[in-house]
Amino acid sequence: MPVEVDARIKEIIQRSYNVKSFRLEIGDWLDFKAGQFLMVRLQDNPKLEKYLSISSSPTEKCYLEFTKKLTQSDFSAALNNLKSGDRVKIKYPLGQFILDESAPKVAFLSGGIGITPIRSICKYVVDKNIGIDMVLVYSNRSIRDIVFKDDFSAMSKSYPLLRVAHVLCEAEQGFKCTVGRIDAGVIRNEIPDYLERKFYLCGPPQMVEAMRKILAEELGLSSGKIVTENFQGY
Predict the structure, then answer these.
(1) 55 touches 23 (CB < 8 A)
(2) If you average pLDDT over residues 133-152, what whole number do you get?
(3) Are 101 and 181 in contact (CB under 8 A)?
(4) Residue 143 neighbours by CB distance under 10 Å
(5) Which of 6, 87, 186, 205 is most buried by its number of CB atoms within 10 A?
(6) 3-state SS string over the chain?
(7) Distance (Å, rounded) from C-alpha 200 to C-alpha 176?
(8) What span, in angstroms and rounded, lies between the C-alpha atoms of 177 and 95?
């Protein structure tokens, strides 16, 4: 059952030029599942309230982390002004974007800041050494937009069953990626055993719906092998 708690900001991390992670100290630790999200309220003002994915893993016990792309919204402006020691209200855990640990092979399709719950899930699997075979296909405009780039690089090195494939709109010299967008051809090329995998989709709503249609209509996956979240974080 979700609970609402008062949390203190422990640390703020600049992930990219327009993305920050906020690590929270929680007085009484409440268990959550990798991939779930929370509600964040700033200045105890319902108008400054947002649903955001938890980007930390349940294995990272010293803090609870959420990560946000900073836009021109009032919420982003207020969030960007926060400092270590400030307090926020949160309600968690929420959502059903949760890993099926019985699936031997999974795949993640993500775009932009939609990577946050996937980072939580992958970190959980790596830390627990669960043995699930994972492929991530991650789409961004350019290399500077990739969030958690170093995290995923480190995870894939320590856990050989995780492979990360980047898809960028712009080619980057010396950086291995596919140029373009995620489509059926990219999925077939990067995940040749896609029919054996359960897919988790997270990103902007239009992208998620487009990916769902590609998997179902072009690649023939059943609805039971496609997991999405009805999520208001964008």
Answers:
(1) no
(2) 97
(3) no
(4) 17
(5) 186
(6) CCEEEEEEEEEEEEEECCEEEEEEEECCCCCCCCCCEEEEECCCCCCCEEEEEECCCCCCCCCEEEEEECCCCHHHHHHHCCCCCCEEEEEEEECCCCCCCCCCEEEEEEEHHHHHHHHHHHHHHHHHCCCCEEEEEEEECCHHHCCCHHHHHHHHHHCCCEEEEEEECCCCCCCCCEECCCCHHHHHHHCCCHHHCEEEEECCHHHHHHHHHHHHHHCCCCHHHEECCCCCCC
(7) 23
(8) 31
Cis-peptide, bond into residue 205, ω within 30° of zero: no
Domains and CATH numbers, the chain: 3-94 (2.40.30.10), 105-227 (3.40.50.80)
In angstroms, the CA 95 to CA 34 distance is 10
Record the tokens describing residue 75, joined without a space. Answer: 């919420």
Tokens (6 digits) for 158:
């320590």
Per-residue pLDDT of 24-52, as tens digits, reads 998 777 789 999 999 999 988 889 999 99
Distance CA 69, CA 19 (A): 4
Beta strands 133-140 and 49-53, pairing class: unpaired
* Tokens 């992670």, located at residue: 21
Q: Which residue has the tokens 């600049």?
A: 14
